[in-house]
Amino acid sequence: MAEALLETAGLTKRFGGLVATGNVSLSIAPGEIHAVIGPNGAGKTTLIGQLSGELKPDSGAIRFAGADISRLGPARRAALGIARSFQITSIFREFTALDNVALAIQARAGHSFRFWRAARRDARLRDPAFAALGVVGLAGRAELVAGSLSHGERRALELAMALATAPRLLLLDEPTAGMGPEESASMVHLLAGLKGRFSIVLVEHDMDAVFALADRITVMVYGRVIASGTPAVIRADPEVRRAYLGEEGG
Amino acid sequence: MSGRHVAICVALAALALVPAVATVAEAPFYIGLFARIIVFAIAAVSLDLILGYGGLVSFGHAAYLGIGAYAVGILSYHGITDGVVHFAAAFFAAAIAALVIGFVSLRTSGVYFIMITLAFGQMVYFVGIGLNEYGGDDGLNIARHSDFGAALNLDRPVVFYYFAYGLLLLFLFLGNRIVQSRFGMLLQGVKSNERRMIALGFPTFRYKLTAFVMAGAVCGIAGALFANLTLFVSPSIMHWTRSGEIMMMVILGGLGSLVGPVFGAAAYLILESVLSRLTEHWQAVLGPILILVVLFSKTGLYGIFALPRRRSG
């Protein structure tokens, strides 16, 4: 196997007496879609938070592209190429869709101590931003205020922003959360199109989406990894069936 | 040019005509009143940069006004009268104060940020009271205006007026460039959703601090002008109620518009001037007016007069 892009070793985070993630060790290969599933409260979002740097693990280490990033804050990690989408859509509601993505482009375009040129007329920001909107099918919505977009469009916008930062690793926290079947299907289609171009850690409740997209699946229950492997292995794992898939109806 | 631009240009051009009209009408009092409006407009514009665009509710902005004014007062006291030195000292002293205050305050957010900037503001106020050498509580008289040579003799009210007016236009122009630049977009992004900005990879602290220092430095210039306007400086210029007044001017005029606070400063000081002649409880009248403006226009006077009607919702 190729060297892992992201590796965690013994990642542990406690909230008071509750172990949100206990001794989680993951390895994400370049270009792989790695799904993390588990019932509510399994610690999936806490895991994403630690990978993105918003949460500090109590113990354990995170390596990204061969370097220890355990102590870096979220902005530094994003600059290294770890982009995330949030479980609850996090966009700039007052800005247009294009402005939203242009800010993401700007984040990757060096420092922002630029006080003179008008950013909204800067083709180096606007053109790639418009292209990223096209990738997620929002080109026709570019000039609309983000807050006025539909839920599904906002989720797609958030994905476009993550893509616009030219990441190496995408952390996607329930990209289909709150979506109807149609919106959900189009998001899965979108993600399938990204397959192989980025490494993706995908937290998802929609099992159809997970089994359609994932190269490997890690199953978490009460903060612990109970199984990890290819979709076929996970599907056949008796402990997983008992703990999770059976209950949720697969 | 849109209707909005026309309204703004007319308003700013009208300010330029004040000395002429006041002279013809033989009412020089108005030159002083409008000079005061311009000085506070600069302070309010500087606050709007961080408050309206960055969402940083700094409740200690009068501190920089005071530091700028004291820079002029203290230098004059020691016999240094050069105007360039005065204004450079006001600018950099306020910038350094903002750097220190911002460095600590910007680690907090929300209510804590409001409280800590308020606390710093009051701290500077009490330092002013403690300056016994420079009059302490009673303040300090300034013998002469800042000396910019014969061509720019601030002793003449009209010259001072246009000097302040020119600075206001300069800061409006620079501010307008800044808020549209990448830096300005970043600042507005921080106001809208700072968590998202960090997740995109922006180290937001250093940018917020930069904006905070720029706002402080410009307010220091307003302070230097204020010292020249009144030829007197005392700690009362830094009292927290003064920070509140500047913030009211920004909100009354329209947050996040830069030019709105100019309207806000004008409205506030004209109302103060008119109402305080009618009653000493003029603030009891001003309060409800402020409430009404904020209730009916989220973008203040600027929104009422200069923005096209929009559907609410």
Helical content of chain B stands at over 70%
CA-to-CA gap between the ends of chain B? Answer: 27 Å
Give the biggest sheet of chain B.
Answer: 2 strands, antiparallel
Shape of chain A: globular
Shape of chain B: globular
Structural class of chain A: alpha/beta
Q: What is the CATH architecture assignment of the largest domain in chain A?
A: 3-Layer(aba) Sandwich
How many structural domains does the protein architecture of chain B include? 1
Classification by helices and strands of chain B: mainly alpha
Strand content of chain A: 15-25%
Instruction: List the domain count of chain A as a whole number.
Output: 2
Characterize the main sheet of chain A. 6 strands, mixed
Q: Give the name of the CATH architecture of chain B.
A: Orthogonal Bundle
Strand order of the largest sheet of chain A: 6-7-8-3-9-10
Taking the alpha carbons of the first and last residues of chain A, their distance comes to 29 Å
Q: Roughly how much helix do the residues of chain A carry, as a percent range?
A: 25-40%
Task: Provide the descriptors you would attach to this structure in a database record.
heterodimer, A: 250 residues, alpha/beta, Rossmann fold, 2 domains, 6-stranded mixed sheet, 37% helix, B: 313 residues, mainly alpha, ABC transporter involved in vitamin B12 uptake, BtuC, two-stranded antiparallel ribbon, 12 helices, 2 strands, globular
